[in-house]
Amino acid sequence: MIDVVEIAGQRVGSGEPSYVVAEIGINHNGDLGLARKLISAAVTAGCDAVKFQKRTVDVVYSAEELDRPRDSPFGTTNGELKRGLEFSQDDYAAIDEYCRMLGIAWFASCWDEASVDFLEQFDPPCYKIASASLTDDALLRHHRTYGRPIILSTGMSEIDEIDHAVDVLGTDDLVILHATSTYPSQPPELNLRAIATLRDRYGVPVGYSGHEVGLAASVAAAALGACMIERHITLDRAMWGSDQAASIEPFGFQRLVKDIRAVESALGDGVKVVYDSELPIQEKLRRVGLRRVATAN
Predict the structure, then answer these.
(1) Which residue range(s) make up the domain with 94?
(2) Does residue 104 form part of some domain?
(3) pTM over 0.90, yes/no
(4) Strand 75-77 to strand 69-72: parallel, antiparallel, or no bridges (unpaired)?
(5) pLDDT (tens digit, 9 = 90+) per residue, 30-45?
(6) Each residue of 218-250: pLDDT tens digit?
(7) Residue 243, domain CATH
(8) Structural domain tally of the chain?
(9) Residue 154 domain-assigned (yes or no)
(10) CA 211 to chain CA mean position, Å
Protein backbone atom coordinates (compact mmCIF):
# COMPACT_ATOMS: atom_id res chain seq x y z
CA MET A 1 0.00 0.00 0.00
CA ILE A 2 1.48 3.33 -1.14
CA ASP A 3 -0.54 6.03 0.58
CA VAL A 4 1.22 9.21 -0.55
CA VAL A 5 3.15 10.47 -3.58
CA GLU A 6 5.00 13.80 -3.52
CA ILE A 7 4.42 16.16 -6.46
CA ALA A 8 6.04 19.60 -6.61
CA GLY A 9 6.71 19.47 -2.87
CA GLN A 10 3.11 18.58 -2.01
CA ARG A 11 1.90 15.29 -0.57
CA VAL A 12 -0.79 13.66 -2.69
CA GLY A 13 -2.72 10.75 -1.26
CA SER A 14 -4.41 9.41 1.84
CA GLY A 15 -5.22 12.03 4.47
CA GLU A 16 -4.00 14.91 2.29
CA PRO A 17 -6.05 17.66 0.57
CA SER A 18 -7.07 16.89 -3.00
CA TYR A 19 -4.44 18.09 -5.46
CA VAL A 20 -6.39 20.24 -7.93
CA VAL A 21 -5.15 20.34 -11.51
CA ALA A 22 -6.52 22.74 -14.12
CA GLU A 23 -6.01 21.06 -17.45
CA ILE A 24 -5.34 23.65 -20.11
CA GLY A 25 -4.69 20.85 -22.57
CA ILE A 26 -5.32 22.30 -26.03
CA ASN A 27 -7.82 24.91 -24.87
CA HIS A 28 -5.17 27.56 -25.54
CA ASN A 29 -5.89 27.10 -29.27
CA GLY A 30 -2.22 27.60 -30.06
CA ASP A 31 -2.22 31.11 -28.57
CA LEU A 32 0.43 31.80 -25.93
CA GLY A 33 -1.45 34.85 -24.68
CA LEU A 34 -4.54 32.73 -24.10
CA ALA A 35 -2.42 30.13 -22.31
CA ARG A 36 -1.14 32.81 -19.94
CA LYS A 37 -4.71 33.93 -19.19
CA LEU A 38 -5.69 30.34 -18.40
CA ILE A 39 -2.68 29.91 -16.10
CA SER A 40 -3.61 33.14 -14.30
CA ALA A 41 -7.22 31.95 -13.92
CA ALA A 42 -6.00 28.68 -12.40
CA VAL A 43 -3.81 30.55 -9.92
CA THR A 44 -6.70 32.83 -8.93
CA ALA A 45 -8.93 29.79 -8.41
CA GLY A 46 -6.39 28.26 -6.01
CA CYS A 47 -5.33 25.32 -8.19
CA ASP A 48 -2.17 23.40 -7.36
CA ALA A 49 -1.02 22.86 -10.96
CA VAL A 50 -1.85 23.36 -14.62
CA LYS A 51 -1.40 20.72 -17.30
CA PHE A 52 -0.75 20.88 -21.03
CA GLN A 53 -0.59 18.26 -23.81
CA LYS A 54 2.52 17.64 -25.93
CA ARG A 55 2.67 15.68 -29.18
CA THR A 56 5.13 15.09 -31.99
CA VAL A 57 2.43 15.35 -34.61
CA ASP A 58 4.07 13.25 -37.34
CA VAL A 59 4.75 10.44 -34.86
CA VAL A 60 1.37 10.33 -33.13
CA TYR A 61 -0.76 10.57 -36.29
CA SER A 62 -0.51 8.73 -39.61
CA ALA A 63 -0.05 10.64 -42.85
CA GLU A 64 -3.55 9.55 -43.85
CA GLU A 65 -5.04 10.98 -40.67
CA LEU A 66 -3.13 14.24 -41.06
CA ASP A 67 -4.39 14.62 -44.63
CA ARG A 68 -8.01 14.07 -43.61
CA PRO A 69 -10.21 17.11 -44.40
CA ARG A 70 -11.08 19.14 -41.31
CA ASP A 71 -11.92 22.81 -41.16
CA SER A 72 -10.33 24.82 -38.37
CA PRO A 73 -8.86 28.27 -37.77
CA PHE A 74 -5.56 26.79 -38.96
CA GLY A 75 -6.64 25.41 -42.34
CA THR A 76 -8.63 22.67 -44.02
CA THR A 77 -6.86 19.47 -42.94
CA ASN A 78 -6.45 17.64 -39.66
CA GLY A 79 -2.69 18.05 -39.94
CA GLU A 80 -2.95 21.83 -40.11
CA LEU A 81 -5.13 21.74 -36.98
CA LYS A 82 -2.79 19.46 -35.01
CA ARG A 83 0.30 21.45 -35.94
CA GLY A 84 -1.45 24.73 -35.16
CA LEU A 85 -2.22 23.55 -31.62
CA GLU A 86 1.38 22.64 -30.80
CA PHE A 87 3.54 25.11 -28.91
CA SER A 88 7.18 25.71 -29.86
CA GLN A 89 10.33 25.52 -27.75
CA ASP A 90 10.11 29.27 -27.13
CA ASP A 91 6.43 29.00 -26.19
CA TYR A 92 7.12 26.33 -23.57
CA ALA A 93 10.04 28.32 -22.22
CA ALA A 94 7.66 31.27 -21.80
CA ILE A 95 5.08 29.03 -20.10
CA ASP A 96 7.72 27.69 -17.73
CA GLU A 97 8.85 31.21 -16.84
CA TYR A 98 5.28 32.43 -16.33
CA CYS A 99 4.31 29.51 -14.10
CA ARG A 100 7.44 29.98 -11.99
CA MET A 101 6.67 33.67 -11.66
CA LEU A 102 3.12 32.93 -10.47
CA GLY A 103 4.22 30.06 -8.24
CA ILE A 104 2.16 27.28 -9.80
CA ALA A 105 3.44 23.87 -10.88
CA TRP A 106 2.98 22.74 -14.48
CA PHE A 107 3.40 19.51 -16.37
CA ALA A 108 2.04 17.79 -19.47
CA SER A 109 0.69 14.58 -20.89
CA CYS A 110 3.18 13.46 -23.53
CA TRP A 111 1.81 11.31 -26.35
CA ASP A 112 5.16 10.02 -27.66
CA GLU A 113 8.70 9.40 -26.48
CA ALA A 114 10.19 12.47 -28.15
CA SER A 115 7.69 14.68 -26.33
CA VAL A 116 8.78 13.20 -22.99
CA ASP A 117 12.41 13.94 -23.89
CA PHE A 118 11.44 17.48 -24.89
CA LEU A 119 9.61 18.19 -21.61
CA GLU A 120 12.52 16.94 -19.50
CA GLN A 121 14.44 20.18 -20.10
CA PHE A 122 11.84 21.99 -17.95
CA ASP A 123 12.27 19.67 -14.93
CA PRO A 124 8.55 18.81 -14.62
CA PRO A 125 7.35 17.62 -11.19
CA CYS A 126 5.60 14.63 -12.78
CA TYR A 127 4.20 13.27 -16.03
CA LYS A 128 0.62 12.51 -16.95
CA ILE A 129 -0.15 9.51 -19.17
CA ALA A 130 -3.34 10.18 -21.10
CA SER A 131 -6.06 7.55 -21.27
CA ALA A 132 -5.37 7.13 -24.98
CA SER A 133 -1.78 6.11 -24.18
CA LEU A 134 -2.53 3.59 -21.42
CA THR A 135 -1.91 0.59 -23.73
CA ASP A 136 1.34 1.98 -25.20
CA ASP A 137 3.88 -0.10 -23.28
CA ALA A 138 6.92 1.50 -24.92
CA LEU A 139 5.72 4.97 -23.98
CA LEU A 140 4.98 3.88 -20.42
CA ARG A 141 8.46 2.44 -20.04
CA HIS A 142 10.06 5.52 -21.54
CA HIS A 143 8.33 7.73 -18.97
CA ARG A 144 9.83 5.61 -16.20
CA THR A 145 13.39 6.14 -17.43
CA TYR A 146 13.30 9.66 -15.97
CA GLY A 147 12.25 8.55 -12.49
CA ARG A 148 9.48 11.09 -12.03
CA PRO A 149 6.04 10.50 -10.47
CA ILE A 150 3.49 9.25 -12.97
CA ILE A 151 -0.21 10.11 -13.14
CA LEU A 152 -2.07 7.43 -15.13
CA SER A 153 -5.52 8.22 -16.50
CA THR A 154 -7.82 5.24 -17.08
CA GLY A 155 -10.61 6.43 -19.39
CA MET A 156 -11.86 3.99 -22.06
CA SER A 157 -9.87 1.17 -20.40
CA GLU A 158 -10.91 -2.28 -19.24
CA ILE A 159 -9.65 -3.47 -15.87
CA ASP A 160 -7.25 -5.98 -17.46
CA GLU A 161 -5.70 -3.16 -19.51
CA ILE A 162 -5.19 -1.13 -16.35
CA ASP A 163 -3.70 -4.20 -14.64
CA HIS A 164 -1.20 -4.51 -17.46
CA ALA A 165 -0.31 -0.80 -17.44
CA VAL A 166 0.32 -0.94 -13.68
CA ASP A 167 2.48 -4.05 -14.17
CA VAL A 168 4.54 -2.12 -16.74
CA LEU A 169 4.82 1.05 -14.67
CA GLY A 170 5.09 -0.45 -11.20
CA THR A 171 3.41 1.21 -8.24
CA ASP A 172 6.26 3.45 -7.03
CA ASP A 173 5.34 7.14 -7.30
CA LEU A 174 2.15 6.25 -9.18
CA VAL A 175 -1.18 8.06 -9.01
CA ILE A 176 -4.14 6.58 -10.90
CA LEU A 177 -7.03 8.71 -12.11
CA HIS A 178 -10.49 7.31 -12.67
CA ALA A 179 -11.94 8.86 -15.83
CA THR A 180 -14.65 8.52 -18.46
CA SER A 181 -13.40 9.58 -21.89
CA THR A 182 -16.42 11.29 -23.38
CA TYR A 183 -16.57 15.07 -23.78
CA PRO A 184 -18.78 15.91 -22.02
CA SER A 185 -19.51 12.81 -19.95
CA GLN A 186 -23.04 12.04 -18.78
CA PRO A 187 -23.65 11.50 -15.02
CA PRO A 188 -24.81 7.84 -15.33
CA GLU A 189 -21.45 7.01 -16.93
CA LEU A 190 -19.21 8.67 -14.33
CA ASN A 191 -19.20 5.66 -11.95
CA LEU A 192 -17.50 7.50 -9.09
CA ARG A 193 -17.51 4.38 -6.92
CA ALA A 194 -14.74 3.09 -9.18
CA ILE A 195 -12.40 5.45 -7.30
CA ALA A 196 -12.54 3.13 -4.28
CA THR A 197 -12.38 0.05 -6.54
CA LEU A 198 -9.11 1.21 -8.11
CA ARG A 199 -7.64 2.28 -4.77
CA ASP A 200 -8.38 -1.13 -3.22
CA ARG A 201 -7.12 -3.03 -6.25
CA TYR A 202 -3.78 -1.28 -6.75
CA GLY A 203 -2.96 0.16 -3.34
CA VAL A 204 -1.90 3.56 -4.71
CA PRO A 205 -3.43 7.05 -4.47
CA VAL A 206 -6.42 7.38 -6.80
CA GLY A 207 -7.94 10.60 -8.10
CA TYR A 208 -10.53 11.70 -10.62
CA SER A 209 -10.23 13.28 -14.06
CA GLY A 210 -13.65 14.71 -14.91
CA HIS A 211 -15.11 15.68 -18.27
CA GLU A 212 -18.71 16.24 -17.19
CA VAL A 213 -20.70 19.45 -17.29
CA GLY A 214 -20.95 21.13 -13.88
CA LEU A 215 -19.14 20.79 -10.57
CA ALA A 216 -21.20 18.41 -8.42
CA ALA A 217 -19.60 15.13 -9.51
CA SER A 218 -16.08 16.46 -9.06
CA VAL A 219 -16.88 17.69 -5.55
CA ALA A 220 -18.47 14.30 -4.82
CA ALA A 221 -15.30 12.61 -6.05
CA ALA A 222 -13.31 14.59 -3.49
CA ALA A 223 -15.78 13.52 -0.80
CA LEU A 224 -15.26 9.90 -1.88
CA GLY A 225 -11.54 10.27 -1.26
CA ALA A 226 -10.13 11.26 -4.66
CA CYS A 227 -6.58 12.42 -3.95
CA MET A 228 -6.47 14.52 -7.13
CA ILE A 229 -9.16 16.36 -9.06
CA GLU A 230 -8.38 17.28 -12.64
CA ARG A 231 -10.74 19.34 -14.78
CA HIS A 232 -10.28 21.21 -18.07
CA ILE A 233 -10.24 25.00 -17.76
CA THR A 234 -11.45 27.50 -20.37
CA LEU A 235 -12.16 31.20 -20.52
CA ASP A 236 -15.45 30.55 -22.33
CA ARG A 237 -17.17 27.20 -22.94
CA ALA A 238 -18.53 28.58 -26.21
CA MET A 239 -15.03 29.13 -27.64
CA TRP A 240 -13.86 27.15 -30.64
CA GLY A 241 -12.24 23.84 -29.70
CA SER A 242 -13.12 20.20 -29.11
CA ASP A 243 -12.64 20.26 -25.32
CA GLN A 244 -14.23 23.61 -24.46
CA ALA A 245 -17.76 22.31 -23.78
CA ALA A 246 -16.46 19.85 -21.18
CA SER A 247 -14.39 22.53 -19.44
CA ILE A 248 -14.98 24.93 -16.55
CA GLU A 249 -14.81 28.71 -16.81
CA PRO A 250 -12.71 30.74 -14.33
CA PHE A 251 -15.48 31.63 -11.88
CA GLY A 252 -16.67 28.02 -11.92
CA PHE A 253 -13.14 26.82 -11.15
CA GLN A 254 -13.02 29.15 -8.16
CA ARG A 255 -16.27 27.61 -6.92
CA LEU A 256 -14.94 24.11 -7.54
CA VAL A 257 -11.80 24.63 -5.45
CA LYS A 258 -13.77 26.42 -2.72
CA ASP A 259 -16.33 23.59 -2.56
CA ILE A 260 -13.65 20.88 -2.51
CA ARG A 261 -11.89 22.59 0.39
CA ALA A 262 -15.21 23.04 2.23
CA VAL A 263 -16.03 19.35 1.81
CA GLU A 264 -12.57 18.32 3.03
CA SER A 265 -13.05 20.45 6.14
CA ALA A 266 -16.56 19.11 6.69
CA LEU A 267 -15.53 15.45 6.52
CA GLY A 268 -13.69 15.70 9.84
CA ASP A 269 -12.01 12.75 11.56
CA GLY A 270 -15.07 10.58 12.21
CA VAL A 271 -14.90 10.88 16.00
CA LYS A 272 -18.29 11.93 17.40
CA VAL A 273 -17.93 14.83 19.86
CA VAL A 274 -19.94 17.73 21.22
CA TYR A 275 -18.37 20.98 20.05
CA ASP A 276 -17.98 24.03 22.27
CA SER A 277 -20.35 25.88 19.93
CA GLU A 278 -23.09 23.33 20.75
CA LEU A 279 -22.92 23.68 24.53
CA PRO A 280 -25.06 26.84 24.82
CA ILE A 281 -27.68 25.21 22.57
CA GLN A 282 -27.56 22.05 24.65
CA GLU A 283 -28.06 24.08 27.80
CA LYS A 284 -30.96 25.96 26.27
CA LEU A 285 -32.87 23.12 24.58
CA ARG A 286 -32.33 19.96 26.64
CA ARG A 287 -34.96 19.35 29.33
CA VAL A 288 -33.86 20.04 32.91
CA GLY A 289 -32.75 16.84 34.56
CA LEU A 290 -31.99 15.13 31.23
CA ARG A 291 -28.83 17.06 30.43
CA ARG A 292 -25.41 15.55 30.89
CA VAL A 293 -22.12 17.33 31.14
CA ALA A 294 -20.38 16.95 27.77
CA THR A 295 -16.67 17.14 27.24
CA ALA A 296 -15.92 18.90 23.98
CA ASN A 297 -12.68 18.32 22.13
Answers:
(1) 4-269
(2) yes
(3) yes
(4) antiparallel
(5) 999 999 999 999 999 9
(6) 999 999 999 999 999 999 999 999 899 999 999
(7) 3.20.20.70
(8) 1
(9) yes
(10) 10
